[in-house]
Amino acid sequence: MLKFAKTRFKRGATDAEREKLKQELFTFKKTVEHGFPHRPSAVAFDPEMKLLAIGTRSGLIKIYGQPGVEFSARHSVESQIIRLFFLPNEGRLISLLDDNSLHLWEVNIKDGKSVLEEVKDFSLEGRLKKISVCCLPSTQEHLFLGTEGGNIYLLDVKTFQLLDHIIYQDVVMQNVPDDYKANPGAVEAIAEHPTDSNKLLIGYNRGLIVLWDNKSCNAEQTYVAPQQLESLAWHRSGDQFMSAHADGSYCIWNSADASKPAQNATIPYGPFPCKAINKIQWLTTKSEPFIAFSGGMPRASYGDRHCVTVMQGKTHVVFDFTSRVVDFFTIGDTDRECEWDDPHTLVVLAEEELVLMDLQSEGWPTFRMPYLSSLHSSAITCSSVQTNVPDQLWDKIVAAGDTQMAANHTSREWPIEGGSVLSETPASKDLLLTGHEDGSVRFWDVSTPALRLLYKLDTKAYFSTHDDSEVVAAADAGEEDWPPFRKVGTFDPYSDDPRLGVQKIMLCPWSGTLVLAGTAGQVVLMDMNTEEAEVDLEVTTVNIVNDRDGFVWKGHDSLTPRSTTVKVPAGFQAKHLVQCTPPASVTALANHSENQLLAIGTSHGFSIFDYLQKKVILTKCTLNPNDLSATGESSMSRRKSLKKSLRESIRRLRKRGSRSTPSKKEAKPRVEAVPTTDLDAPEKGEEAAAPVQRLVEARQPDGDMASMVRCLVFAETFLREGASAGLSLWAGTNSGGIFVYSVTMPEADKREEEDVVAELGKEVQLKHRAPVVALSVMDGSNVPLPDPMDVKHERADAPNMNGTHTVVVASEEQFKVFTLPRLKEKTKYKLTAKEGVRVRKVGFTQYRSRSDEKHVEQHLSLVTNVGDFLVFSVPQLRRQVQHSCMRKEDINGITSTIFTRDGEAFFLLSPSELQRCTLSARVAVEPLCMLELPEGARPAPPPEPEPEPEVTAEAEGEGEKTEEEKPASVPETLPSVPAIVVETSPPNPVEDETEEAPAEEAVAPEKPESEHEAEGVLADIQKTLENTSILDSTADESKDSVGDITLDDIKDYIASKEGPDEDSADKPAVDEGADN
Q1: d(Cα 666, Cα 657) in Å, to the nearest integer?
Q2: Do 185 and 150 form a contact (C-beta atoms < 8 A)?
Q3: Do 495 and 466 form a contact (C-beta atoms < 8 A)?
Q4: Are 298 and 440 part of one and the same domain?
Q5: Do 446 and 539 fall within a single domain?
C-alpha cells in the first residue's frame, strides 16, 4: 500500500508538470476564415471610413477594410440578413433580418484590438408591420422603415426605439387619385431628397410615387407610374428623379411636374418583354451622367443572365456574372455638398463573388482582389500547403502572376482601405495550392489573414478535350452585338471535362518542380520558367495492371495530349506527361526531387518513374484476383458508457472473490499490478480489459477499393540487418497492406546512364485490415525524416542515422510504431476500439513551446470521422489534446482537412471558404486590426434620469430587509443535502446491480473483506477507466484519479452489500434518498 501511494504521488507531480508544458505547446483556436462568405444576402459601404460590410443568409456579418483588416460577428439567431446600413464615420452598423428585427452593432476595442459587438436590438410585430424597405437619411438621426402595410415608421438610432411620429398611408393618400387609394401596395422605395433632407420620395408597389415633406407632414406631389415600381433614384440637383419598373423600363420625372414623365418610358432591351429592373442609380459627372441598373434583360433570350448595366453617353456595357446579383453600389470621393457625384468604382456583390469595376480607367477594367477571392471559381478537388517558401521561388511565382493579371485588371489602388493593421510583417512566406475540377491550380498567399491570389496555372492547354470543337464553333459564329455583354468575375461552375480535375499536388520549393496528378490517371511534371515558351509535351505510358490477364477497364478514357506545340506563358510549364493505364484517378503521390524519382498510386497499384531518364522503374499491381468481387463493411458495437463498464468490472470481481477467498499474500501482487499510463509498456491483463473496448471486426476486402493505394513515402532508412541506410519506397493500401521497396541508385557520375533498381524488401499485412492513411519514418531522435533538399539548403537538421529508426503506421482504426529494420512492434494505440471513431486525415507536425523556442516536440495530428482534432505523441502514442471542431455531418470539411508542419490546419468551411485554425500555442495567423474613430464621432448616449433620494433609500431598505429574511428559510433544506451526497456517491455506479448478485455470494457481517481486496477493486476500476473512452482532452490524467472513489469508499461499499450492520440499519432515510 505504501509503495502504491509513493508511485501515485510521484506520477501526480509528473502529470502536473506535463499539464503545464501542454499549455505552452498546445491550444485550439479558429483563427481566420479565408475566401468568400457563403450565401451573401446584403452589402453596405461606409464612404467615410472606407469599410465594406457583407451579411449572409445565416446571420453572419463580415466587415473588411484594407488587406488584413477584418471584423466578424454572428447574430444570436440564424436568420437571413436582408439589409445593412453603416452609420458613416461612427464605426456602427444596423442590420435588418428576415424575422423583422433590427440590430445595432459597434466596432469597439477589446483586448488591444477592435472587435464587432452587438449593442442593441429592436423588433416590429405584426404582419402589416413587416419591413419592406429602409432608408437612412444623411442626418443619421433616425431610420425610415417602410412596411408591407404602407405605413412608414421612424426608428431613433440613438435609443433604438420607435418615434411617436409615423407617416401613415392614409395621410399620404389624401391627394391621390381614387384608383390608388384603395390599395397602393407595400412601400417599395424611399429616397431622400439630395438637397432638402426634410423631403422624401415614397414609392409604392403598384406604381404610386409621392414627394413627402416630413417637416410639414404634407404630400407635395403625387406621381402615377404606368407599371409596378421597383426602385427610385434622384438626380444630384433634386430637380429630377428616375423610377425603375417591373417591365424592364425606367422613367425620368421632373419633381415639379407630376402630370406625366419628363420623357417617355425607356426599355433599354425591348421591345420584347423584359425582366424587372431591380435597382437603378443616376450619377452625375462633369461630362455625361452614369446610369447603372441591375436586371432588365429580355426574358426569352437572356432571361437567365445575371447582369448589371452601366451607360455613360455612347458607352454601354452589360457586365455579365455567372451567379445572381445580390446588390450593387458605387464609390465616389465627393460629399453631399459637392456639385457632382463623380463615381470612380462600381461594386457588385453576386452570390458567389465580389467584383469591382474601375469607372475612371478606359474600358472600365476590374480590380485585382487582395482578399474576398472566390476560392471555388471552379470546385476545389484537392489542396496543399507549402510553408516557408524560399524567396527565389516566391518572387518568380509573384512575377508570373503579375504579368498574367496585368492585362485584365486596373492598376489603381484598392479603394476599400479602412482601418489599420496591428500585426507584424510575417517572417515566413506560406503558399496554399488548390487544385480544381477544371484542371487549374491556383497559388494563394496565406502568410497573412488576407488570402491573395498570386498566380493561376491551367493544365487544360496541354490536352484536347471534347469541348474544343464547340469553342471553335462559337468563336466562328461570334456573339451578338446586342446587348453588349462583357463577362466579368472568375466564378465558373462548369467544367469543360471532368477528367481534367486535379487530385494531387506536390511542389518542391528548391528545385521548382511541380507535380500535378489528375482524375484520368494523368500526371504532369512541370518546371518554373520565367520566360514564355513553346512546349512539345513528351508522354510516357505506365501500365499498372500488365500482369493481370483478363482485366477489363470499364471507366472513362484517358485524356488526349495535344499533338502540336503548345505556347505557354511564363510560370510553371509542362516538361513531361505520365499517363497511367487504366486511367483511374491518382490516389497517392510522392516526389524525391534530389534523385528525380516520382511514385504514383492509383486504385490498381503503384509505380516508380525516373523523370531524369524518363523511364518506368517499377510497376506493382495491388489487385487481388481472388477477392475482386468481395464486398464488406466493418461494424462496431455501440459505445459503452463509463458507468456500465464500472458495473461490469466490479461484478466480475465480486464473482471471482466469492469462489475463492484470497489470502493477504495473494492479494498483494494485485496492488502492484495497477496499469500504467505509459503505452510503451506491454498490455498485460488484456483479456480482463477486453470488455471495455469496442469489438471491431476484421474488414473484408472490398473489390477495387481494397487495392487502392492510400499513401506513398520515400525514406532513406534501414531495411536489412547490418546494412547501411538506403533509399526506400513505402506504400500503404486500403486493405491494410504495406509494401516496402528498396531503391538502389547508381553513382552520381553515372546517374544518367545506369538504371535505378527497385526490389521488394518487405511486405506487411495489418491484421485489422483497415486502410493505411499515413506513413512516416522517424530517425534515431524520433524526428520524421526531413526532405533531403531541406537538409541540403540548411532549412532542416540532418537526420540522426545512428539510433534506431522507427516507422509510424496510421490506419483508420489504430496507430502502430515499428522498429526498423526488423519491423518489431514497439507501441500501438487502438483508436477505434477505445474512442469509437475513425481516422480521416493525418499530419506529422512539430509543436514548439511559445515561451522556449528550443523546446520542440514531434506529434501526430489527425481529424476523425466525427470532426474532432486529436494530437498524439510519437513514438509513445499518448493522447495530448482533443478538440471538437466540425460537425460529424460535415463530410466535405473533414475530408478536405490538411495540416501544416507547424501545427496549423485548413479545411473547407463551405464551398467558398477555408477555415484556418491552429493547434499550436506558438503559431497563429489571425487578423489583428484597429479601427480608430475620430474624436466625437459617436453621439453621446442620452442621459438616464437620476432616481430621487427617497426612492433610493427606500429601495435599499427593502433590499437589506430581504437579505436579512433570506437565511431564515434556507437552513430547512441545507442539512439533508450533504448527507445524501456524502453517503451515497461512492456506491452510485453499481447501485442498479444489487439485485443481480447471487444470494450464495453474500458474506456474513463478522467476516469483512480484507483491505487488500478493497485495494484490488480500486485497481480494477482504474484499469477499467484506463481502457474506457473518456472524451476529454485530459483523459490521461483522469485515469490517475478515480473520481471521488477511494479505498474507504470501496470497503464501505463491499461491507454494505455483503450484509447490513447495526449502524447501517439505523439509517434508512439516507438509503431512501440515494434511490431517489
Answers
A1: 12
A2: yes
A3: no
A4: no
A5: yes
**Number of C-beta neighbours around residue 96 at 10 A:** 22
Q: Which amino acid is at 524?
A: V
Within 13 A of 525's CA, how many CA atoms are on the CB side? 26
Q: Strand order of the sheet with strand 142-147?
A: 131-135, 142-147, 152-156, 161-167
> Which pLDDT tens digit goes with each residue over 803-828?
899 999 999 999 999 999 999 999 99
Q: Print burial letters for 196-229: b (CB count within 10 Å at least 16), e (below 16).
A: eeebbbbbbbbbbbbbbebeeeebebbbbbebeb
Say if CB 306 and CB 203 are below 8 A apart. Answer: no
Is the domain of 490 the same as that of 631?
Answer: no
Question: For residues 900 and 1049, is the Cβ–Cβ distance under 8 A?
Answer: no
Q: C-alpha dihedral over 646, 652, 653, 654, to 10 degrees?
A: 110
d(CA 597, CA 591): 6
What are the residue ranges of helices labelled H in 719-787?
Answer: none
Chain-centroid distance of CA 1011 in Å reads 55
- Alpha-carbon span 468 to 465, nearest angstrom: 6
Contact 469, 330 (CB under 8 A): no
Neighbours of 188 (CB within 10 A): 22
pLDDT band at 176 (very low <50, low <70, confident <90, very high): confident
Asked whether the beta carbons of 62 and 70 are under 8 A apart, the reply is yes
Q: For 828-851, what is each residue's pLDDT tens digit?
A: 999 999 999 999 999 999 999 999
Q: Which single residue is written with the C-alpha cell 466535405?
A: 892
> How many helices and strands, by DSSP H and E, does the chain display?
20, 62
For residue 733, how many other CB atoms are within 10 A of its CB?
Answer: 28
User: What distance in Å separates the CA atoms of residue 891 and residue 908, rounded to the nearest whole number?
Assistant: 10
Domain boundary among 361, 392, 413: 361
Task: Let me know how long the chain is.
Answer: 1076
pTM given for the model: 0.81
The mean pLDDT value for 913-920 works out to: 97
In a shared domain, residues 400 and 350: no
Q: Evaluate whether 302 touches 293 at the Cβ level (below 8 Å).
A: no
Contact 562, 576 (CB under 8 A): no
Distance CA 661, CA 1010 (A): 10
Alpha carbons 188 and 210: distance in angstroms, whole number: 12
Query: Which residues in 129-161 are b (16+ Cβ under 10 Å) and which e?
Result: eebbbbbbbeebebbbbbbbbbbbbbbebeebe
Cell 531522435 -> residue = 781
**Upper half-sphere CA count for residue 883 (Cβ side, 13 Å):** 17
Q: Clarify whether residues 632 and 750 are in a common domain.
A: yes
Is residue 644 within 8 Å of residue 636, measured between CB atoms? no
Residues 399 and 507 in one domain: yes
Kindly state the average pLDDT of the residues 254-274.
92
Note down the domain range covering 981: 975-1075
467 and 497 in contact (C-beta within 8 Å)?
yes
Confidence of residue 98 (pLDDT cuts 50, 70, 90): very high
29-815-907 Cα angle (round to 5): 30
Domain boundary, last residue among 817, 836, 855: 836
As a whole number, mean pLDDT of residues 261-265 equals 90
Tell me if 631 is assigned to some domain: yes
